[in-house]
Write a structure and sequence with these properties.
By secondary structure, this protein is α+β, with helices and mostly antiparallel strands. The chain has helices at residues 42-50, 100-111, 130-140, 219-227, 288-303, 319-325, 329-339; strands at 2-9, 13-14, 27-33, 55-60, 64-66, 69-71, 74-81, 86-93, 116-123, 146-151, 163-165, 168-170, 173-180, 184-191, 195-207, 210-214, 217-218, 243-246, 255-257, 259-263, 268-271, 280-285, 312-318, 345-351, 354-357, 364-367, 371-378. It contains 7 helices and 27 strands. The strands form 4 sheets. Strands 15, 16, 17, 18, 19, 20, 21 and 22 form an 8-stranded antiparallel β-sheet that branches. The model has no long low-confidence stretch (mean pLDDT 92).
Length: 380
């Protein structure tokens, strides 16, 4: 397995020459790009032309990661030529968010084979129901097939996201790469690092990703009570106070949900993932040191399956974490690489949602405000 990572900016061009030596049917090319490259696609076209036999996929971001470097207005690129692992590409259109579940089923049908070991998913970040996408993969795939990935970003604008597949960028698309055979090793880890506070409350009224009532009381009213003076800064202040959600009494670790909007007239809150009635919720707040520590723990989880040879680590972190961490953002990228095996190659992006199994389980979940790590390597 041969791994190369590089970056591109308009000012300096490609940091390493690209071209034929690594091109093959067993080569994966990942491209994480600032949103404006859909309008100025020349470097994307150069990459696609340089690897005509390879699987080339990517998406727009809220920040590009390569090594310990975080950049904007750039491309972060990974080129991986496998020795013994077969690859396959699948995609599905999502015209409406209600189609998300069926999109996952379609992709699973396209990729399903007895020797399928894992799937990497990149999705439109705005016109998708990430919870339903994850549920579709859980429904359609065997428990021993891992599904990880993320939702495309658009900086802090939340206006337009896109996915790269088969040489073209497009909205309302989910693209996925399947990995096949007994030699590929796929690991994953996902951690938040937020501190939980306040009592746990029952979700008594909700609809999809809109929360109306907690313990029979207006959700927004309760939320404002805990925020105190910070409530005046809603909805921006909500990034500092996500929700910890347990959908079952047996859940030992919560799923994190980010608040996207509030509705004063309905006293409701809209989240980046579903809030099922009957689940239990508690508030969380940012602790910068614990966020960085959480990123390190995510990488430790991913490293468990990595070999001592070349390892690709795909780091996908939530845009909310970047906004909260501010100038300390690169610390979490450094922490993940430090926790990975020596010689690992890290690329990734800041996203609008992360897809990863929870707590060592194999089933896929949608996460918000987490750092997720996927490691890919080969064993002899």
């Amino acid at each position: 397995m041969n791994v190369q990572t590089l970056h591109y900016s308009e000012a300096s061009g490609f940091s390493t020459p690209i071209g034929q030596p690594l091109d093959s049917a067993r080569t994966l090319v990942l491209v994480f790009a600032s949103p404006e490259f859909a309008r100025h696609p020349a470097p994307l076209d150069t990459i696609t032309a340089a690897y005509p036999n390879s699987v080339v996929v990517g998406c727009s971001t809220a920040g590009e990661i390569v090594g310990t470097r975080l950049a904007d207005h750039s491309l972060s690129i990974a080129i991986v030529r496998f020795d013994r692992t077969d690859l396959a590409l699948a995609s599905a259109e999502v015209r409406h968010s209600e189609d998300s579940y069926e999109a996952a089923l379609s992709i699973a049908r396209q990729l399903k084979r007895p020797d399928l070991r894992g799937i990497l998913v990149l999705s439109d970040g705005l016109n998708i129901n990430g919870s339903e996408l994850a549920r579709g993969f859980r429904t359609a795939l065997p428990s021993d097939v891992s599904v990880t990935g993320g939702l495309a970003g658009d900086g802090s604008r939340f206006s337009q996201t896109w996915v790269l597949s088969r040489g073209r960028t497009g909205e309302r698309i989910v693209v996925a790469v399947g990995f096949y055979g007994d030699h590929v090793q796929i690991g994953h880890g996902s951690q938040g690092g937020w501190d939980i506070f306040g009592p746990e409350r029952l979700v008594t009224r909700s609809e999809n990703n809109v929360l109306y009532e907690l313990d029979g009381k207006p959700a927004l009213e309760l939320y404002k009570r805990y925020l105190g003076d910070r409530a005046n800064a809603l909805p921006a202040a909500a990034l500092l106070f996500p929700l910890a959600l347990r959908t079952s009494e047996h859940d030992t670790e919560p799923i994190v949900r980010t608040i996207l909007a509030v509705d004063e007239s309905q006293q409701s809150m809209t989240f980046a993932g579903e809030i099922p009635e009957g689940s239990r919720a508690r508030l969380m707040h940012a602790n910068l040191d614990r966020l960085v520590q959480g990123a390190s723990h995510a990488a430790t989880g991913g490293a468990r399956m990595a070999t001592d040879e070349s390892t690709l680590a795909i780091a996908i972190s939530c845009v909310g974490r970047r906004l909260v961490l501010g100038e300390r953002t690169e610390e979490e990228i450094e922490a993940t690489l430090d926790a990975l095996p020596d010689g690992s190659h890290q690329v990734g992006f800041y996203s609008y949602g992360e897809l990863c199994p929870q707590n060592g389980a194999s089933c896929c979940e949608l996460h918000n405000q987490t750092m997720t790590i996927t490691t890919i390597s080969e064993r002899n």
